[in-house]
Amino acid sequence: MRAGRNQLIRRTTGPALASRRRPTPVRAFASVLLAGALALTATACTSGGDKGGGPSFQGGSEAGDQPKATAAITAPAADAKDVPASTEIAFNSKDAVETTVVVKNAAGAAVKGKLSAAGTWLPDNALEYGTTYSATVTATGDDGKPATVTSNFTTMAKPDKQIRATSFLGDGQTVGVGMPLIVKFTRAIPEDYRDDVQRRMTVRATPAQEGIWHWVSPTEVRYRPKTYWKANTKIFYKIQAGGLPMGGGWYGRSDLTVDLKVGPAVVMTVDNKNKKMTVKKDGKVIKTIPISLGKKSTPSSSGTMVVIEKLKKTVFDTMDDPNPANRYVTDIEYAQRLTWGGEFIHAAPWSVASQGRTNVSHGCVNMSTANASWLFNQTRVGDPIVVKGTERKLENGNGWTDWNMSWDDYVKGSAIPPEAASPEATTVPSTEPTATTAG
Q1: By Cβ atoms counted within 10 A, which residue in 98, 146, 147, 217 is the most buried?
Q2: Residues 6+ apart with CB under 8 A from 228
Q3: 248 and 276 inside one domain
Q4: Residue 12 covered by a domain
Q5: Maximum Cα interatomic distance, the chain, rounded to a whole number of Å
Q6: pLDDT digits 0-9 by tens, 98-112
């Protein structure tokens, strides 16, 4: 049986996120790597340089006292006004064995931040609107002498035009191994701004796994790993878009963070040839279930889907179907949605005699009430199901079809070219925050 397209879907929504876009920062950080390993911190050094507006270098007055290293701040410009609250500090250092960045507000309080994947210093949270900040970069060479540069800038007033973004998932949830991370925006993000947004989208997983963001539409972006999430993975993701320019005078409203975990690896496989579902948990078969799929006039979709929602009791109402033969109103138990078009796994006591033998449904995966109840208690939203051998192929976009695409095709949906996105496409352990990469 297939439910109607208008079947309601219950969503769990995370904290509100608003993104706002900034100009792409100057990527001039490479020079700090000239002298080998770079040690970068956010709080170690105290500036003793000029407290005025322009960049300043600090060193001894005698030639022999001059530090070997040099430092420069390239963005924001000295004494810049109307700087987006999402701004990063772009800088250069040369001949340095250690480089530190300190940003302070007008009251002298240090702002927490870290090195970004682009080699800039990025605050942990969006800066305050209408506030003056000082940025100090200190480079120390192998002679032990620091070179310091300080620059001031003032952030813009709070904008009226703000874009809000939300996460489908919220803190504390446990999801299946096929669950994509889903972020939606209240306004379309222009194509030439999506790379900046994506660079501010960080995923941190324990254990680390390769993955990437994929733009489903101008208002929706999703993240999936290259292969299913490993069982019991811990996931933290952050959309650091507060104050980020997003085109047309629109800015992000706020940052967003989500902390969740993945459950056991429950994977369902349905084979139309033998009319059976095989259920594996952490790689071991735990049950084989007789099923009935869609009859020839209403075939089930073949492809890789995931459980979108779970309804212990619901009503399928297809009275708006153009074909009178497909109209019905039926009470349903243990329903698990697979597509927006109305394909579910569910209990079908009326078709038990056909289960394991022939297809009689309207496109759903039918099974006995006892088996549907058992399966319902095993699965979570995000658990994958692979259906094989039916007359119809799954249409991408008809549900969370992220796994119905090859990895190569999925990567094409990234706003950052694959060769440039390799650091951003890898999640890192939550125990290594300084190694976090965005995008």
Answers
A1: 147
A2: 177, 178, 265, 267, 384, 403
A3: no
A4: no
A5: 96
A6: 999 999 999 999 999
Q: Give 360-371 pLDDT, tens digit per residue.
A: 999 999 999 999
The active-site residue out of 45, 214, 362, 364 is 364
Instruction: Say if residue 271 is in the same domain as residue 396.
Output: yes
Q: Global pTM?
A: 0.81
Q: What is the pLDDT of residues 247-283, one digit of tens each?
A: 999 999 999 999 999 999 999 999 999 999 999 999 9
User: Could you say which of 155, 174, 200 is where a domain stops?
Assistant: 155
Q: Is residue 5 part of a domain?
A: no
The answer on pLDDT for 432 being more than 90 is: no
CA dist 438 and 421 (Å) reads 9
- How many domains does the structure of the chain reveal? 3
Contact 69, 93 (CB under 8 A): yes
- Among the listed residues 45, 214, 346, 362, the single catalytic one is 346
pLDDT of residue 419: 63
Residues near 197 by beta carbon (within 8 Å), at least 6 away in sequence: 19, 21, 189, 221, 241, 244, 246, 415
- The DSSP string of 269-308 is EEETTTTEEEEEETTEEEEEEE-B-B-TTSPPEEEEEE--
User: Do 217 and 276 lie in a common domain?
Assistant: no
Q: How far apart are CA 180 and CA 201, in angstroms?
A: 14
Could you tell me what percent of the chain has a pLDDT over 90?
74
Instruction: Confirm whether 45 is a catalytic residue.
Output: no
Active site residue 364: yes
For residue 379, the one-letter residue type is T
